[in-house]
Structure prediction request, 895 residues.
Amino acid sequence: MIGAYAAGATASLLAPRSARTARALGHSGLCVGALAGVALAIRCTAGGASGTTLRVELPSLFPFAHLSLVLDGLGAFFLLVVSIVAVAAAVYGPAYLRAHGTGSPAVEVLGINLFVGSMALVLCAGDALTFLLAWEGMTLASYTLVVSEGGEADAHAGLVYIVMAHAGTALLMVVFLSLASHAGSFDFAAIRAAATALSGPERSVLFFLALAGLGAKAGVVPLHVWLPLAHPAAPSHVSALMSGVMLKVALYGVLRLGLDLLAPAAGPLPPSWGWTVLVLGSTSAVIGVLYALQQHDLKRLLAFHSVENVGIILMGIGMAMLLARRGGAADALAALSLAAALLHTLNHAAFKGLLFLGAGSVLSATHLRNMEQLGGLGRRMPWTAWLFLTGAVAISALPPLNGFVSEWMTFQALVLGGGQLRGGAGLAAVVAASALALTGGLAAACFVKAFGVTFLGRPRSARAAEAVEVAPSMRAAMILLAAVCVVVGVVPGYVMSLLDAPVVRLLGGAGPSALVTVRGPLVLSALGAAGAGTALSMTAAAALFAALALLVWGICAWPRAAARRLAPTWTCGMTPQSRFDYTATAFAKPLRFIFAALYRPRREVEKETGPTPYVLRRLRWEGDVVDLAETELYQRLQAGVMRTARAVRSRSTGRIHGYIAYVLITLLLTLLAFGRG
Amino acid sequence: MSPELATRLIDALGALLLFTMILILAAGQLYRAIYAVAAQSVLIALAGAVLGATTHNLDLWIVAGITLLVKAIALPWLLLRVIRRVGIRREIEPVVPITATLAIAGGIVVLAFHLSSSLGAVRQAITGNALPVGIALTLMGVLVMMSRREALTQMVGLFASENGIFFTAMAVSQGMPLIIEIGVVLDVILGALVMGVMVLRVRSSVDADIAELDRLRG
Prediction:
């Protein structure tokens, strides 16, 4: 697998000779690598509930530590997720870059192979050093991809991204180095053994440091500001990888550290961990979808939805952390909650990948990202439209697709888990559940807007009117991901066995497939044999939907007595124009009013009237919303840093005597402070 | 040599060292400051020899010899040569007025004695009062570097500081290991060479001074 990525990366050397060959070879290397990843992951997760653990020792690069690769159930599941999206991206990439690529093929091919390869290495890392090295490789490779298309805005996005990512990496290094110094070795097995000897507060401090570091990478509010900048800047199939997969690698880190390496030897985890994760998750979910609603750039909108979905996954993880190892029904619910989070990881990778590829298809056909200039693409690009619609239905958590399954499971885990926790804690869990419900509703509203404005109505610009359907390879990549969405949505019971290995690896006890599919693989039940939970058959729901659709189609197609007549819509005598359609801004207006406290909308209206106020010469409207975290938190932070820097600068005269004087004064003060003994 | 005699000798040398330091600080002419620091280095070498004779430590003799050769003879000669070559501006131009510098120096001496009274634990029987003198010399060396404009005076300050560190080390642990002393002396030689070359070159190309380096600031 690694070999194939390396081969793909070497293909970048061909770039100066032929961009086309380099792209084709590079992406086929990527594809082969990802397929090998899928095979490896399935081999590892299919080994029953315990899973198979592979171990490979790497030749020692450093005198003080040896590197090793270990793939266990948890890593294998994430590797599967990474590899599926990577296959789709590899199929999609060459045609997309031919149509829309503006960067250098060498950078693109090298970057994407290194990027996916190092993500796979992070998941396989058997020691802290390999983890950190691969983590850094992932950051740097994705950075080059973000800035690969050139342009001022991309450079700024890249800067914000790399600053945030490195701040996170720094925190992770602190965590891993202090763990390694306790253990006397970088090896995860040694760290796991040594971590049991840590005191409670030490353990919690390390966990929260790691959570902050990983959260910066996962795009958790308020560390998400880089995400809506960086993800849209990259080429679309890379956006799909970054959004669909890279965030998941950070979540893998949360699971690995929180539930595996740092977890106490016995007994439940500290409740503060679970609550923090749950609250962060709920906040990210709601804030993410609210900001997504106000975006009119298709890819930026999708990037904000990633914040939302990471939030949903974190809610599942948080609930699992709260309930884990409490014994009895709580254990089963913890397994359900974790399974929901993991399933949503897979689902989000599939539908977000699909949506980003869809947005990429729109982009490559029209070279436009602003929805206000699109419209009417459904008729010109039917494949893309239908596939995008599939992704939109899935992300909006509507049955019968996969988003619904995992959100339903998360929902059940939150509500039933709230019952287990009792009292105020239980109430809080139910509040989180209602936040999840709100998120689902808002996401649906958002995608009605995104789909409707982009694909329905009339084209709003000449480019949108001239769009043509994209290349077959790009369609094939989207169909692959859409198929994952449909399969997981219609027969989720069969997918559950994939989740056994990671859940058992982290929580012990019974695997989720035994709990969830207790009434057969076609019916999901939330609490297994305990029977308290509700049950649901996605397959039956899908059949129902299919029957309903057939019925509607039948009624429409039924021959009628009167002949049908096609006529233009009556528009009070005016000619229909694209300006009559709902715009994205207008569609989101009601919500902008409701959540005005959060959005702080700004609007500017300029009117120019003729001789009477009833004749309007010119009307200009401008409005936007601010990201509260960006203005309130980061701009203040930045202003503070700049103030300090200026203050220091005015003191530093550049005169050598001044500096020596500072040395002397420091020496004297130190002597005075510590010399008294 | 008996320990009592050595203690008295070192106390006397310490007083002389402080005196030379005041000479350096008060010097109005560059060559006087250089003579003063050469005399100070001779005194340091003497102190090292006295301690070496008392404790029968061969390393101290070697260090004393090196100090005499390098800091008392070779480097002052080099600095004087640079002055002759450059040939202008023999007056010291203080950044801080000389009287003010002397007042600060007095304060530093008082502070050093005050502080070292609480550091009894690290003092040695033979070199009783060397510790505050060493600290005061070190700090006053930095003071010289801070308060004078010319590159060469800064060099003088560095020598004085280095002498102070040597004296402190003697007071605390009968001198540092030989290898470290040799390393420090090498550092000082290098510093002097760099400064000397820089002054010569800078003078010959542009008429600039250390104090004008701030024009390089970004």
Summary: The mean pLDDT of chain A is 81.
